[in-house]
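Human: Here is a favour to ask of a fellow structure person. Comparing notes only helps if you start from a blank page. Give me a protein, with the fold worked out from its sequence. Please set it down just below, with no commentary around it:

Assistant:
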Amino acid sequence: MVQVDIEIGHRDGGEMVRIPDVLVDTGSAHTTLPADTLQELHITPIDRVGIALPNGEEVEWGIGEAKIRIAGRNEEWTCPVYFCPREEYLLGATTLEIFGLMVDPIEHGLIRKQVRARSI
């Protein structure tokens, strides 16, 4: 299990809030954060999407965009986020892809992915 600290904020700038010990979940498409936390930062849903939870339940959650910084790295990127009605903190696969990171199962952390170029 890999956990990292992240900072989140509004995509247009402003305050970034630190959230410690966010679980990295490569099985989740997008980063999932509590709706209350996102709304406190004036991050609003752009749309609502259907989601199949691991227990088989189907729900509809808001989806929006937040600026994210991972584990004190210098770069920050705008990433899709799900508005979870519960206190759930997951860093999803799309965010890892945007940052060019992957899980290191040996060291239990995140490492930079090697970029592969292919000829056309």
Observations:
- The mean pLDDT is 92.
